[in-house]
Design brief:
Four copies of one chain form a homotetramer. In chain A, strands 2-3-4 form a three-stranded antiparallel beta sheet. With 258 residues, chain A is mainly alpha-helical. Chain A is globular, with a radius of gyration of 21 Å. The first copy, chain A, contains eleven helices and five strands, in the order ββββαααααααααααβ. The relative contact order of chain A is 0.16. Chains in contact: A-B, A-C, A-D, B-C, B-D, C-D. Chains A and B meet through strand 1, strand 2, strand 3, strand 4 and helix 1 of A and strand 1, strand 2, strand 3, strand 4 and helix 1 of B.
Chain lengths: 258, 258, 258, 258
């Protein structure tokens, strides 16, 4: 059986030369920040300074969220059986899916629907949002990206939107994110602030990322926290311990300022 | 059975407040670059500007190396069976272990041995390196971190060391990396330049990272490339195709300058 | 935060007593064959002797299919990076999904549709099959479970159906499997014999397994082959080798008779 | 780059012919029980009837142990994030490693040491065991395979050894397992019955399995339980729930007899 030759558009390797999306990696090193290179690898082009700064903040926003998310509990549990560091990290990443981090993609779908409706019907954002919220309610479907089991007003959302505004990246998707919140408040009688998944969704729409990249971006950022958690599990915790998802606390440094 | 309370030192969650290693994540966002936050999450403290720049370059150096490494082939193969994006990424990360990326930890071990010997015996770097190389040869053990199956002079190594020099981060571990190369050249009669795994090992030693973090840092950086590869596999390739590790090419943008 | 108590219906543990689906495991051992216990664990009840024999044959049919399926290539590739045995096996299982092994569930869906149609419309099997095939063609959808990239007449299918007949387990789903083949032959002008995924689908329908168990049963059987492949990779192959999906051969015992 | 041809000794595929370790899989189906085929795939030869019955009992002994082991908690946690069935199963298998199931391999090492010592020094089993236990105590190392966090007298151990005796498979490794228990009782003043990991270790030694197969056999058996647990998590539990490792119960059928 002969083998088919196949191609990929990401990286070209030649002796003594590594080119990522066309750029020599040794030229990128030290000149283009890691977060901008993440953008380059995922999208195929370097971001503008403004896009790069928003990308950076988005990645920082998702590095970790303590030890209660399924990804961390899965990663630590795998490690507690004796698996090596990378197997533990992988166990965590596998838990990122439809229900965990998946609100990013889900919310991107809704934002695209709403903005398309607005454009096609030449509506304002709030009218399009009200119609869509009504349709979702009628179909008994939730709009993902709003509300959080811990935070009533997610600090990451506010900050991410503020940076997007500062950098001129905020456009009709972030506007629509606010319109949907308003429409839901009118319809449900309850104000559900956007959570960080929703905020990332809106920003990824502004940056024209494909839907499937929602989980991808989250996985890249969260791998950082997972690595620290698995390292802690391997070096500081007892093997085969029962890892409670609730009876847990924090023993790191007290709050400090930059 | 009652549950033991346990603690972790990474992230504290309170309503409307996420604190990573003591810093509010919304304060970090937009002010501290992602690569510095990676350093913070892994080490517990923010890097200096100099350390942060070296960290950034190290992460960039390892984002991707084309489609031949086992991690990419595993990730793409998992995805070709129909698994979701994050399961594919996880399949790739699991392939990062002793033989793939493991030279980082292996080389860190040797560098620590050599520098300790130098200190304890009050030797110069070359003498310590010569003795250690002789011992490794006698024990028929390889010194990891030198030589590469594609690159005779890894461009990432040169660049990483140059940045470490510029930033004043280069110390006795990077000096020892050079001494070991010299000692191996004398002993083997062959000049094996340090590969990027070795260069990262030397820099991680300078930054005082624990050995086990070698694979961790590599996993974090490589997750970026894996995400792009799995996305390509899912969106642009045929399901269940036979993925050749050799009959493959690159069809992305031609070489371009920053 | 208090924890919710949760329950599962699979196994009860008491000191010196392990009860699987209500049966003491030490009573099952040596008296009930492993394959029947698999049935018990998955379905909640022990099979009849007839059902148990069909279950056994189904598991045997899927233990391995050489080194070309994605699951084996993924498992070996993960292991070649240095991962431990179980991580390699897991890498293989993750590749079993929609496209690899997924035809079982896909074919179960079609068989249920066809048999329901037959019942509701009081048709004979062939008429129901002809109508469904016409609808699938019109919608340009493939009917999964027929045809194979290597086998023109899958020996496992014939044998599995023969055993199901012998044991009186063959009913209207296996009849419908044949009717669909006949209807496709008439419609496409090409005889596509059922593959082993399709045969397992038909038998799982006869045994009243839920759809989602298609991949589960396949994963259980294939874990056996994956374990042997990963063991071979770790003990007999070179680390970090390039694992060709095509340039490969067999060097085990020659064909032999029971 | 040309590809090296490689070989594996497990399965040969020809059109319309699948041969596992030399036997046609359609000939095995319905004639050789699944558990014997597991033995064939792993060892390369069919077991005798006696060996096959012991193998069967060993596989049954390990199908499940409730919802507290790390493998089940990891599998369910991965699934609760929304991952598909096979990704959840894989998450569980990854947790089987040095600390979880690893006592099998650890105990096999000790049994081999003890039996070799007995043979080389022409000692009786108890003398060899006493010496080894003294050496392990002096080195402050535990002998794996004895004691259990729930069972004071593991019912699976007794039953497995009884079947091995009945079938004439019990030899000097099972004898040594008893001698080590006796020696530990004398040395520690506490009787630690062998757990099921230890019992499987002794039987795998009798059947001449390689050490690395300890985790492999356990993974094969436990995949059955993991499949049922992940299916339950996906179909009967709430997504993203907090899965307590302790506040859990059983709601399946009450104890019943065969």
């Amino acid at each position: 059986m002969t083998e088919e030759t196949w191609t990929q558009p990401i990286t070209k390797i030649e002796p003594n030369k590594v080119m990522v999306r066309g750029y020599r990696i040794d030229e990128l090193m030290g000149r283009v920040p890691f977060s901008h290179v993440v953008y380059l690898v995922l999208k195929g082009e370097l971001p503008t300074e403004a896009q790069g700064r928003v990308m950076d903040a988005m990645l920082v926003s998702s590095v970790d969220h303590g030890a209660t998310p399924p990804s961390v509990l899965a990663a630590r549990t795998v490690a507690s059986g004796g698996a090596p560091l990378t197997t533990g990290i992988a166990g965590g990443i596998m838990a990122i899916n439809r229900h965990h981090g998946g609100a990013i993609e889900g919310c991107m779908v809704v934002l695209h629907q709403a903005v398309e409706r607005k454009r096609e019907r030449a509506q304002d954002a709030l009218t399009a949002a009200q119609e869509l919220v009504a349709e979702y309610r009628a179909a008994k479907q939730r709009i993902p990206g709003y509300g959080h089991r811990v935070h009533t007003d997610d600090p990451r959302t506010q900050r991410l939107f503020a940076i997007a505004e500062e950098e001129g990246v905020a456009g009709e998707y972030i506007e629509m994110a606010g319109a949907l919140r308003q429409a839901m408040k009118e319809s449900l009688g309850r104000d559900l602030p956007m959570n960080v998944d929703g905020a990332i969704a809106a920003v990824l729409c502004e940056l024209d990322f494909p839907l499937e990249m929602g989980n991808g971006l989250f996985a890249i950022a969260r791998t950082v926290g997972l690595t620290a958690h698995v390292f802690d599990e391997i070096t500081a915790q007892r093997p085969m311990r029962r890892i409670s998802p609730t009876a847990q606390g924090y023993d790191g440094p007290a709050e400090r300022k930059l």
